[in-house]
Design goal:
mainly alpha
């Protein structure tokens, strides 16, 4: 068996003084994140409650400041949200309201959403929550109506898990806007 020809070895050119490895730089936090990091604890706590109305969640995030980046804050938010007890979850859900409809939504849409929400509240005892992050505005009404109707078929424990996940996503979305 004969071997095919091999290419000659490639010679590396001498180093030009430029490195191919990017320099590691530490970016500074966004101004709003700086404000959250430096705010007095009670002020930070009140601000965080606007993102998710759970005293435990907000206190935990306020107590673990400063956050070097938005990603660090969001990771801490996720961890705290995953640790919500059933009581914490009930507290957060009690403060939520039904997602608003676009101003140009037709009357029948308002009636359909209100009827679905009444049925949802009667079945699960709290407001329907959904994060519309990534849903185009023109599709939000259909998305909300489809989701609420679909979730009405959940058993209460499964819906508690879904609602907790939606609250976690809402908190992330609100924190990102805040920071």
């Amino acid at each position: 068996m004969t071997r095919g020809s091999t290419l000659p070895a490639h010679r590396l050119s001498p180093p030009s003084g430029c490195l191919a490895i990017p320099a590691q730089t530490r970016s500074s936090p966004a101004p709003a994140l700086d404000g959250l990091n430096s705010a007095p604890a009670d002020e930070a706590h009140r601000t965080l409650l606007t993102c998710l109305h759970s005293l435990r969640w907000a206190r935990r995030l306020a107590d673990h400041r400063p956050y070097p980046t938005l990603d660090a804050l969001l990771a801490a938010s996720d961890e705290a949200a995953y640790d919500l007890s059933p009581g914490d979850l009930a507290e957060a859900l009690a403060a939520e309201s039904l997602p608003g409809l676009p101003e140009d939504a037709y009357g029948a849409a308002h009636m359909a959403l209100n009827a679905a929400h009444v049925a949802y509240r009667a079945r699960f005892g709290h407001a329907f929550v959904i994060c519309l992050d990534g849903v185009p505005r023109e599709e939000s009404l259909d998305h909300v109506l489809t989701s609420i109707r679909s979730r009405l078929t959940n058993d209460p424990e499964d819906e508690r898990v879904v609602a907790a996940e939606e609250l976690r996503r809402l908190a992330r979305q609100r924190l990102a806007r805040l920071a």
